[in-house]
């Protein structure tokens, strides 16, 4: 407990030293005219630095977003208004897609954080050697293309000839083998599991970096205070990896909402739209059903959902989202 | 100085005269498609370029879904290639504004009476979905197909089944016997919506052919008794365990086709294009097709009869407006179109039994093994009386697929599912 208080004190010290630094620069006397000229030149310089990136952002991000919003406000028959949004509100498949998108966010985040953190603790704190090898092995699924993963897992899950079915048959349970991808209630969860398998290595790697960045003094002090095992993980390591966790939550949310290839390749959003998410439904309405304006409206909803979730996470984190290499320090 | 210049000019002129006119660079024609398979497409392109050294064909082959996605993006950005592969109905209609009317092109290639070269049913399908009064052709067929159920003879023999099923009860019993013998009884790639749609249409063609054909053309007839009956039979395929467990997530291609070729499946819904396996495989049972047979869905109701033949255009070609960018490209594109439909390229595809020819008089140039020849000849005869097998409207098509899957998954009754398709069809009719 002493250590936690110490951690909080360190954070307060950091804040007050930042305030002092800000105050100090504010108090520095400068000639007014010269300061204005310098500021003006500085502003132009900053503007010129920012300009290329801003232009590219406008051209490739802002313009398509605005263009998509405009397209969503026109019906397939060319009428202007909120017709596509009204249609979405009355479309049961749209709501299945929203529900599944949220399920993806919650399940993938919880599982990937749990698995990632647990394995990272094992590797960083309990593995005497071969850390690099394990990190690489766990990261390997990340570099496999989703189409290969989809084919492999579809075959593993397949009733009658799949690997899992073989195991069930060997155990004499062939008749109770569940058709995971072919059953509406399990299709999404079965694909989410594949996504967790693929992405957990990334979470492990990020947590490994986060844990490695923790100052040994804290761990040593915790050991002296008697914090060991679960207590050390819960009260010392987990709080000090807060920055890493917050970053992973944001990245994981965006990744989960954007997930398309695994779903498209494994179930095409089926059976009977049971595994449809907003990302796959955009493709189905736009490219299969040829209703681009309706697809644009769903894309706007997905954009807003991502924006709201990330803003919420940012708010809850108190703006403490940082890249993980500095995570340990940011939390201190 | 002037004298030197004169000599230089003369020497240059002589040089040009000796060298003769520069060889003209070949005209490039761009072509995109999803079919046939890439090796066959490459062979077709090579045959065209050999027959026409003045033409270079840049062909791009992609799987079905990415192909039509790329096509949409290319059309939106004005970058369509000169020639595009199309299916009749929905896909041709989507690109009607981007492709040329082929009436005059066909007349230039095959003469004023060019229509006599194609079966009337195929020409009708080529215009499926045209606005009322528009009798133009925006695609012309290269290959045609017939839908049916294929079966594996050795698997049937091992399961103690003497002949293909003749009734629904036979179908149920045969699927069970095949399963007992270690095979997948009736493989249904229910994750591939197209095959759900095709199996349902084959059932509906039995229970109410007239409404089935009307439904393909967008008529709101899904709640008529024959169509609902077909949905009920579709449900029985799942509840009576005719199709394999997990069928709704299984893929017809590549999984189903590969398992069937590997001898793991007893029955599967495919079509005449399966003959192409005879070219692709070196296994005698496949290379000669002696190990495989075909049948139409047996009578599924008491006193009924087997499904009538469904089939028609498999793939056709459209000439985009971009092909008219120069007279040279336009002329070269027309030549390529001719070779694809009735010339050296189609001959290459046909020799590999890629599918059935749409152009009258075309046939494989090499002798076929007996079993293969019987199958091929039967298909050609069946094609002449085949009923259309494509739903023209993509929204109705998707609604049907979704609801068939819901029936299979047990989340909707056949009646409720057909009601849902009917509602969407009516909404489309109002648009």
Written description of the protein model:
The complex is a heterodimer of chains A (332) and B (431). By secondary structure, chain A is mostly helical. Chain A is built from 15 helices and no strands. Chain A folds into 2 domains: 29-72, no CATH class; 87-331, Orthogonal Bundle (MetI-like fold), CATH 1.10.3720. Chain A is flat and about 70 Å long. The model of chain A is unreliable at 10-26 and 323-332 (pLDDT under 50). Chain B has 2 domains: 27-144 and 313-383, Periplasmic binding protein-like II (D-Maltodextrin-Binding Protein, domain 2), CATH 3.40.190; 145-310 and 389-430, D-Maltodextrin-Binding Protein, domain 2. Chain B contains 19 helices and 9 strands. Chain B has helices at residues 2-19, 38-51, 64-76, 90-94, 103-110, 120-126, 153-158, 168-180, 193-207, 209-216, 225-239, 252-261, 277-280, 284-287, 327-342, 344-351, 370-383, 394-409, 414-430, and strands spanning 27-33, 55-61, 83-86, 140-152, 184-187, 265-271, 292-295, 311-319, 356-357. In chain B, helix 9 packs across helix 18 (394-409). Chain B is globular and about 70 Å long. At the A-B interface, helix 6 and helix 13 of A face helix 3 and helix 18 of B.
| Unreliable stretches covering 5 or more consecutive residues of chain A | 10-26, 323-332
**What is the gyration radius of chain A calculated from CA atoms?**
25 Å
What shape does the CA trace of chain B take? globular
Ends apart, CA distance between termini of chain A? 15 Å
Named CATH topology of the largest domain in chain B? D-Maltodextrin-Binding Protein, domain 2
Kindly name the structural category of chain A.
Answer: mainly alpha
Distance between the termini of chain B: 81 Å
Give the DSSP E fraction of chain B (strand runs of 2 or more residues): 5-15%
Secondary-structure element order of chain B, N to C: HEHEHEHHHEHHEHHHHEHHEEHHEHHH
**Helix percentage of chain B:** 40-55%
Overall mean pLDDT score of chain A?
A: 85
| Total number of distinct structural domains of chain B | 2
Dominant shape of chain A: flat
CATH architecture of the largest domain in chain A: Orthogonal Bundle
The H-and-E topology of chain A, N to C, reads as: HHHHHHHHHHHHHHH
């Amino acid at each position: 407990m002493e250590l936690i208080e110490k951690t909080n004190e360190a954070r307060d010290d950091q804040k007050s030293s930042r305030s002092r630094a800000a105050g100090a620069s504010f108090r520095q006397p400068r000639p007014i005219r010269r300061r204005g000229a310098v500021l003006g030149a500085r502003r132009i310089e900053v503007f010129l630095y920012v300009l290329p990136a801003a232009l590219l952002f406008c051209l490739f991000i802002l313009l398509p977003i605005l263009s998509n919003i405009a397209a969503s406000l026109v019906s397939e028959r060319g009428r202007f208004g909120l017709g596509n949004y009204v249609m979405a509100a009355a479309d049961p498949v749209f709501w299945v897609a929203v529900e599944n998108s949220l399920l993806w966010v919650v399940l993938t985040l919880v599982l990937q954080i749990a698995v990632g953190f647990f394995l990272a603790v094992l590797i960083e704190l309990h593995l005497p050697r071969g850390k690099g090898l394990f990190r690489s092995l766990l990261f390997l699924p990340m570099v496999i293309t989703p189409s290969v993963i989809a084919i492999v897992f579809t075959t593993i899950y397949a009733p009658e000839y799949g690997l899992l079915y073989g195991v069930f048959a060997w155990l004499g349970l062939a008749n109770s083998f569940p058709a995971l991808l072919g059953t509406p209630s399990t299709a999404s969860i079965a694909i989410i599991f594949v996504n967790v398998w693929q992405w957990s290595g990334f979470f492990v790697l990020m947590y490994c970096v986060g844990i490695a960045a923790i100052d040994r003094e804290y761990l040593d002090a915790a050991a002296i205070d008697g914090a060991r095992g679960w207590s050390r993980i819960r009260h010392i390591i987990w709080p000090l990896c807060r920055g890493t966790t917050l970053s992973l939550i944001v990245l994981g949310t965006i990744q989960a909402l954007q997930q398309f290839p695994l779903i498209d390749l494994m179930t095409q959003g089926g059976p009977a739209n049971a595994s449809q998410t907003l990302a796959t439904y955009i493709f189905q309405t736009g490219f299969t059903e040829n209703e681009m304006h309706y697809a644009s409206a769903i894309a706007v909803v997905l954009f807003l959902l991502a924006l709201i979730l990330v803003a919420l996470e940012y708010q809850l984190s108190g703006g403490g989202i940082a890249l993980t290499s500095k995570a340990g320090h940011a939390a201190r | 100085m002037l004298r030197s210049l004169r000599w230089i000019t003369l020497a240059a002129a002589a040089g040009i005269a000796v060298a003769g006119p520069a060889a003209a660079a070949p005209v490039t024609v761009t072509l995109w498609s999803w079919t046939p398979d890439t090796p066959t497409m490459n062979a077709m392109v090579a045959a065209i370029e050999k027959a026409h050294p003045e033409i270079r064909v840049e062909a791009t082959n992609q799987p079905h879904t990415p192909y039509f996605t790329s096509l949409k993006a290319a059309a939106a950005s004005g970058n369509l290639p000169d020639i595009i592969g199309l299916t009749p109905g929905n896909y041709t209609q989507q690109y009607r504004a981007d492709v040329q009317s082929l009436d005059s092109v066909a007349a230039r290639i095959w003469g004023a009476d060019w229509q006599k070269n194609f079966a009337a049913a195929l020409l009708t399908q080529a215009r499926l979905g045209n606005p009322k009064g528009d009798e133009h052709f925006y695609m012309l067929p290269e290959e045609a197909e017939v839908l049916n159920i294929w079966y594996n003879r050795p698997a049937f023999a091992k399961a103690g089944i003497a002949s293909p099923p003749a009734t629904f009860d036979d179908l149920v019993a045969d699927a069970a016997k095949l399963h007992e013998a270690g095979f997948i009884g009736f493989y249904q790639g229910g994750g591939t919506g197209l095959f759900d749609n095709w199996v349902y249409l084959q059932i509906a063609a039995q229970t109410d052919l007239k409404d089935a054909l009307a439904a393909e053309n967008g008529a709101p007839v899904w709640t008529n008794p024959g169509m609902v009956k077909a949905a009920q039979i579709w449900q029985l395929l799942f509840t009576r365990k005719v199709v394999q467990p997990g069928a709704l997530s299984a893929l017809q291609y590549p999984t189903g086709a590969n398992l069937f070729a590997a001898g793991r499946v007893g029955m599967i819904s495919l079509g005449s294009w399966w003959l192409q396996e005879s070219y692709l495989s070196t296994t005698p049972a496949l290379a000669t097709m002696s190990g495989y047979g075909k049948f139409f869905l047996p009578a599924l109701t008491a006193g009924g009869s087997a499904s009538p033949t469904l089939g028609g255009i498999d793939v056709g070609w459209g000439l985009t407006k971009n092909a008219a960018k120069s007279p040279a490209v336009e002329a070269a594109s027309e030549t390529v179109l001719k070779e694809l439909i009735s010339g050296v390229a189609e001959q290459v595809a046909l020799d590999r039994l890629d599918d059935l020819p749409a152009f009258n008089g075309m046939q494989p140039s090499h002798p076929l093994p007996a079993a293969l020849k019987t199958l091929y000849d039967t298909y050609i005869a069946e094609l002449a009386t085949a009923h259309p097998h494509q739903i023209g409207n993509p929204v109705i098509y998707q609604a049907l697929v979704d609801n068939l899957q819901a029936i299979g998954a047990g989340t909707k009754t056949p009646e409720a599912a057909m009601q849902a398709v009917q509602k969407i069809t009516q909404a489309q009719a109002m648009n």
